[in-house]
Amino acid sequence: MVKRDVTVTEVALRDGSHAIGHSYTIDQVQKVAKALDEANVPYIEVSHGDGLGGSSLQYGRSKTNEMELISAAVSVCKQARVGVLLLPGIGTVEELKEAENLGARLARIATHVTEADVSKQHIQLAKELGMETVGFLMMAHMVPTEKLVEQAKLMECYGADTVYIVDSAGALLPHEVKERVKALKNQLKVNIGFHAHNNLSLAMANTLVAIEEGATWVDGSVRCLGAGAGNTQTEVLVSVLDRMNRSTGIDLYKMMDLAEEIVAPILEKPQEITKGSLILGYAGVYSSFLLHAERAAHKFNVDSRDILVELGKRRVVGGQEDMIVDVASELAKKSI
Amino acid sequence: MVKRDVTVTEVALRDGSHAIGHSYTIDQVQKVAKALDEANVPYIEVSHGDGLGGSSLQYGRSKTNEMELISAAVSVCKQARVGVLLLPGIGTVEELKEAENLGARLARIATHVTEADVSKQHIQLAKELGMETVGFLMMAHMVPTEKLVEQAKLMECYGADTVYIVDSAGALLPHEVKERVKALKNQLKVNIGFHAHNNLSLAMANTLVAIEEGATWVDGSVRCLGAGAGNTQTEVLVSVLDRMNRSTGIDLYKMMDLAEEIVAPILEKPQEITKGSLILGYAGVYSSFLLHAERAAHKFNVDSRDILVELGKRRVVGGQEDMIVDVASELAKKSI
Question: What ipTM describes this predicted complex?
Fold first, then answer.
């Protein structure tokens, strides 16, 4: 058994699918997973970017059926465990069973940070199937710490082995991560995890703060391959933790090599912080709001960024897209 | 007079020239400088990547004479002050006088972190010319904090208004930045500055730690345009500081716009953390060592990264390139 201070889950084959239009092929997944396995990465997540069952007109169609991709990853892994993401409402229990049957050993059940209660059935099923189980609280910046603790406790009592704080919009500042991890660490018995996005160039900073405060599970994506500005860059994280004498059990040189030789060629273009990803992190809103806000901005002759910032202040969530036009209209009246 | 908590110097037109093979044109510099000026950026550095006089076979030839680029920037700035970098031994007092005569108002005199004594003449000249003057201590990770303080004090006593800690290799970890800034803040009277590189994905983290510990001058580069993995991304830094209620006096939306519309099209390819820039930050060595190490690695059949890590441990500096072959040879013997 490898001794690790920090357990890294590689998400390039799941979150990264957002960055390449869900176009992973079996060949790509096998090459990446095999190299990650050989570098001793302990967990490799493979799913549509929006989790099992995400392939759709709404979320983007996968080029290859994700069950085939999961099988492909499982077939080449000697030590690594393959994980899947599931958002109740998008993915189903049947899909979770199918993935487990194909060899997935880690289930990450993800909900909006206020909706942990919808994860009960799926967390319990994953445990019954004998899978390691993570509760994944998305858009964690949107609620005060007390609310986050309350929701995390729900996932803990459903049976999750680990509860993750997920900074989906890359909106959390380091002191906000510190407060949240500290509170969870104090009030939960299970492992605490952290998943960063780099919209404010803080993915590495926040991941290190989380580890400092006691998070023992963190996510990385090779070459930052993930939604928005991408995630914490795994090969860099492994280098930094090595410099800080925190062991990940991962072979640093192999990670550097696979990033350059196997993952980089898959990227359509390098991940960087663009105007769009920056404003999402700054405002703390869903990426799906961007296009709606731009359309409303055009219609009402206001700045789309002012709309997004206002939506962030009002903590508007998915499904409330009609609010975008309301906000644009209000801003237009104010500016007269 | 604008009230600022943090004074940002934009370095994309100097450090960024490394990233585009020193190919800036007058038109590009005018467009970028004008937009930065309109966004209320207080200082804009314009020089060859290696400072005044850097255009050479050794450091890379500038496509356009840097004095013409300085004039071009000065001609479009209404409030921003144009700065120049000068490394004694590369640039000369005559070049500094010429730049001042063309309208440069900020002189940044840069030396290796152990060689502050060679900056005396240039710092004194800059002050005599009435320029704001910065002492710039490069490769600051290579010495213990006491040594850094000693060298910074030299620059202070020569008359520098501000002394910068320069993390040239992007090798400093946040706690190392904290210790260094704190010590300088305690033991110097002048302003403390910090210049980051992103080789370990820590440019933003380190810049925030520096500000937290009392640094009031920091560098940024729009779209990360700088040597290695680039610098702290200015438009992102301004966003983050805004979220933290630290004023920079800079117009955030104008910064976002100019990054996307004016600077991004100049990049030959987006800045990212590649295998090469990562190993330089991990080992903490000069970028010029990379090619030498790869050649020696090939000759002695060892891993170039082991050579670089060993060079970092031995704190080998520029001019000692013959050590690279020695280290490779030693490693080859050990591995037999």
Answer: 0.96
